[in-house]
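> tool_call: predict_assembly(chains=three)
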Amino acid sequence: MAGQRNSKAVGVIRLVLAAAVTLLILFPVYWMVVSSLKTQSEMRLAVPTLWPEGFAWENYAEAFRVIPYARYFGNTLIMSVGLIILQLNVALWAAYAFAKGRFWGKELLFLLILAALIVPDQVTFIPIYVMMSNLSWLDTFWALIVPNGASAFGIFLLRQAFKSLNNDVLEAARVDGAGRFALIYKMLLPMALPTVVTLVVLIFISSWNSYFWPLIMTNSSDMRVLTIGIAFLRDSIAGDEAMYFHIIMAASVMAILPIIIVYSLMQKHIVAAMANSTFK
Amino acid sequence: MNKKKLATTMMAGALAVVVTACGGQATNGGANGTGGNSEPVDVEPAKVVEDTSPVTIQYWHSHAEAQMEGLNYMLEEFSKKYPHITVEAVFQGGYDDLHKKLQAAVAAKDVPAVTNVEVSSLPTFGESGVFADLTPWILRDQTPLDDFSEGMINSYAFNGKQYGFPLIVSTSVFVYNKTLLDELNVQPPQTWSEIDAFNEAVTLKENGQTTRYAFSVPGWDAWYFDPWMINGGGQILTDDQSASAVETPESMRYIENFYKWKTDGHMHIGYGKGASNTMRQMFLDGEIAMVQHTSANIKMYRENADFEIGVSFIPGDVTRISNIGGAGIAMMEGASELEKEAAWKFIEFMTSAEHNIKWAEAVGYLPTRKSAIESEEGKQYFERWPQYRAVLEHFDDVTPRLQHIAYPEFRSHYIEVMGELALNNVDPATLMPQAAEKINEVLADYE
Amino acid sequence: MRMSNKTNTKQAASVRTPASVRNWRTALEKWKDFLFAFPALALLAVFLYYPLGNSFYISFTNWNMTRPDKKFVGIDNYTYLLGHEDFYQSLKITFTYTIMDVVLTLVIGLLLALMFNVSSRLYAFMRGIIFMPYYISMVIAAMVFIWIYNGKYGLLNRVVSLFGLDPVEWLINSQTVLPALVVVSVWKGVGFAMILFIAGLRSIPSDYYEAAAIDGANRWMLFRYITLPLLSPMTLFLVITTFISSMQVFQSIDIMTNGGPLQSTNAIVYWIYTMAFSQFRTGRASALIMIFFVIILLLTALQWLISRKKVHYEG
């Protein structure tokens, strides 16, 4: 790389700049945490304080009181795990079929799958809502998971990964009488493991953060997820939003904490996998 | 069970056809509130039901956190009175979110039994056949409708059908900084003609920049300025409700005054999402001396201001009215017969005179029952909350909003004129004719 | 028997079996392959293409979803929308937002990639932080930014006042509201773009640079003639995915602006949603869905076609 010729001075300048950019991007998250620890009166100071005068932990107690955190956390987790299992398997099978299989209309059908990328939830949910109601699936995990079972992006990602894998090994295995499930789970999956990990993480992120779908498909407070808890917290203190921002921020911190922990533990794998996983 | 469902669905269908057939003849809320609960001749009283087998009904609501204590109290009292009925109260977000969920639920034929409805959306939902007409039960149980404030009960009637009862009722009032006004020795204006003098006395300027506004009127919701239009002698639609009237000289009087007051730096107009917070903060920080806001916020103002607050009915000119706001409680047409009976008991209980004062005080909204207001409990309530007196004195001047199925859609056009005035100081006279055209377009669309 | 040439190994294995059996077996194999694509196709058929088809049908009616009856109105909904200035206004808002979002996300993402493409633990840690907003829910991101943008107590106005400027109601000002929304989206998206660009940078063989440097190319020329062209597959991927997601902008509008002020953030998907639910016009909203679908499909295909000539794929 060109950067190899950099002198030490340039390296220092680069590091300072990089650190500044990092802090800038980190700032809103920092601000959320700091705001969550301020008192109501401190939130309304003309000159905002960059560090709370004292830690107002009672904001968290209040957020816990309004949002049944354990329940919502559990719901979010069940939904996310369900989506990971379903989307991953459906994507593995489809990716195998489209990357290594032979059947009629393969290219056309693959285009139909890709087209799913351009359709947002907001334009398809009404008929699905009616369907879920007819199945008596409304307000259950089925409605949260099954309609999103096929991830076009996931299929695309895995197909790219499978395509780049060598056919000879597969053919050899096939000749040895390996079935398709064995091919997928014992050969393709381990060989494309980085992409699979990426996909799992991406599914986890998107389902943990999803808002619109659970909002529409659940009708009882027992089935709510964390994002809805936050949005409703804001709604239910409607008109008093600015007065309770410290509590909204406390609830927000609680909602993103799990995902930050997961990410921190797996960061190395995720970033590496992400880098390997686009398309060529 | 299935047969019942089918029958209910068919009934809902038949009813929708009937309702559709008489659609279009909207009643005029306007100034005099003729929303009308005249009893239609062909409605039979509901049958007396002695069934006390357990039933569970869902109640979809928008009660904010601050109202939950009151709601829980009511639910507890209700279950004491009707042990066989379980009410599952589910918060469905603000009114907008709640209305969206209701529509999806109707489309899926999977509805709660009881719901809140924001008052201006009642005609649209009622006309679509979403809500059940409560008249049969009212006839059977001889519910004294005349015990409700007339404007309030009429707000929940449309085309001769009583689609709901008023539950949390508010009206917009001026909340003022009493400490400041006493210091300046001025009274809040009671008529438009007093406003100029009020402005002169109260507005504070530094180098031509206003540092304290005399008053603020919210521009984000027509609910706040429709009464001004009517008080100035104007109306939103023509008498036969066929065309826009917002551009007539009478209807323009208020907004032309707003334009003048605002340009002169006396008046603040809030607009956009979050404007309500901004306005409130400016008031609490002493940057606005008097704000028009919902009476539901009086409690909040009293608790948060570090000065004394007063409440005044909005000033009048040709007339002096204010509009009814808040939400009512309604029964879903798609519910089963068993659920409907339970729903009726719940609706009646929630709006009963017995708990009216307790409920009003707990949630910060207005009492709705005359007998409750006149009771001993009611008198004590007004002693504890003298700020509500200003509203009580004008109880009969609190009128329904315009009742028209297209109102929730077309009002956005003249609200935008107010928005242009609030944000960009555009002369309303240049924009109102276009807004009127757009309103007429929407009206034509509904024909 | 189009496939037969490609399946030499297989034919070799089954050379002794009669042709009819072979054909039958090939057909069976194809069916088995297809069965693996079936769950995905079935799910999409039921939960994507059926709803779209349903919307297509509804777009020719005046349906209001609270009513059992709907009337066939022909192409009225389409002519209404295409003849209405609000439609073009909403389209303009959507495109303005999309262009700002795509350009800023990619340019900043690329600059960050160049800056952070250093192999050290410290830089890896910083990359992790820059990627963080990507996995924060839009609901929460929107809340934080509402607070930062707050006209009275917001931090942004505090910063602005340090430069001696007047405070701005960022979200209640037609001029600033769209950029304010774009900032949230860019904040969330640059980390992802950066990581993909870094992956692209690292896949460029270093001997390309060495050869060019020997020929006397300066750093700008290296960037212009080697880095940029060889990054183009990654760029195309990011352009298309960012384009699609910005065209669908909904959540931040729903939480931060409700389409306002003065309709200035009434982007298409948000408009569809309010048309169907706040105005009870499911039929017209369905027509808008169809129009939107066609527009986004054509534009995505167009980007793909244009770029096919310009994108450099290795090997």
